[in-house]
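Troubleshooting log. The previous structure file for this entry was overwritten by mistake, so regenerating from the original sequence record. Sequence copied from the archived sheet and checked twice against the printout by T.R.
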Amino acid sequence: MPYDDLDERGLPARIASWIYGIALGLLFGWPFGVLFGASGVPLVLIVAASIIVAGYTIRRIMTVVPEGMARAFLHLIWPSGSSTPYEPTYSNLQALAAGGDHAGALEAYDEAMRLRPMDPEPRFQAAELLSKSSTPEKAVRLFVQARRLSGSHRSKELYATQRLIDLYLGKLNDYPRARAELRQLVKRFPGTREAAASQKLLDEISADLPKSGSRGQST
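Regenerated output below.
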């Protein structure tokens, strides 16, 4: 039985509310009817209406108010449920990938992207999977989309940019695009250690290019 289904005397709330409602209805409804000169059936109707109104009001006070106060308190000490937007983790899809079913995981991520087109998370996870595959260029497209969808989440924007740089400098061997992303990181996150490291790497790449030639594709 839910905690709010008993009053302080142990009575079920529905029964208690009507007991109190009858008492209040008789206490106030009867004198009110007599005061306005009602008698017979009209007086009975006034008393009955008073009982119904009093019973319903007491029932609401006994259940809704305590429930609302309890919910507010729970949200204060433990934000969850409706107080915090639900964010899927896609752990079941991660389990597919961890179990070696990469094709099944990618198919499931595609479905998740279709169902939640504004959620960057399935794109991040699918991009990570593709970055280790024989088609890393597909990961680039998903990282770019995930970064765009991340909006004001700067940590996610930074992560996506770093992963793009890793891909361009690694498997894709595309130094021009790597330099473009490094410049973007320095511009978007000034004063951070990531920006400082990116500027240092950018300087090293720029100094090395005349010796090694135009590495990678052109933008």
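The first helix runs from residue 13 to 35. Archived copy saved in two places this time.
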